[in-house]
Amino acid sequence: MNKIPVKKKRGRIENLSGADLRSANFAGANLRGKNLSGANLKGANLSGCELSGSDLKGAKMSGANLSGANLRNVNLSGANLSGANLRNVNLRGANLSGANLSGANLLGITWKDVNLDNVNLEDAHNFYEEG
Questions:
Q1: Going from the N-terminus, what domains does the chain have, and what CATH number goes with each?
Q2: CA 106 to the chain's CA centroid
Q3: Is 56 buried (19+), middle (13-18) or exposed (0-12) by CB count in 10 A?
Q4: Which residues contact 131 (CB under 8 A, 6 or more apart)?
Q5: What's the Cα-to-Cα distance from 11 to each of 8, 20, 46, 58, rounded to whole Å?
Q6: Does the pTM of the predicted model rise above 0.85?
């Protein structure tokens, strides 16, 4: 496995862009405002994770568990979330333009002010927008 350069600020990880984090367990972790653009998070456990304000542009998150995560104001443009569990996720203000949500579980999501331009919702489960 190739090592991914990780940028730290005061001993804290700030940049995980492009990192290979397949099947990693981040359940309940605080990743607020982190750069995870292009990261491979296939099958990762991000349940209950704090990700508000993070950059997940182009992230590979197929089959990931994000149930109960806070994704408020997150950039998920172009991300692959096919087959992911997004049950009870807060997506308020998120950018999902061009994202792939095919086959994902979307039950109980907060959809307020979400950019859904060109989103793939084919075979997504429990999709509905709040009025």
A1: 13-131 (2.160.20.80)
A2: 13
A3: buried
A4: none
A5: 6, 20, 22, 26
A6: yes
pLDDT at residue 128, as a whole number: 63
Where b means 16+ CB within 10 Å and e means fewer, 20-36 reads ebeebebeebebeebbb
Mean pLDDT over each residue of the chain, to the nearest integer: 90
Q: Percentage of residues in the chain with pLDDT exceeding 70?
A: 85
Q: Are 36 and 18 in contact (CB under 8 A)?
A: no
Residue 73 and residue 62: Cα distance in Å, rounded?
20
Residue 112 above 70 pLDDT? yes
| In 10-92, beta strands by DSSP E | 12-15
Alpha-carbon distance of 56 to 52, in angstroms, equals: 11
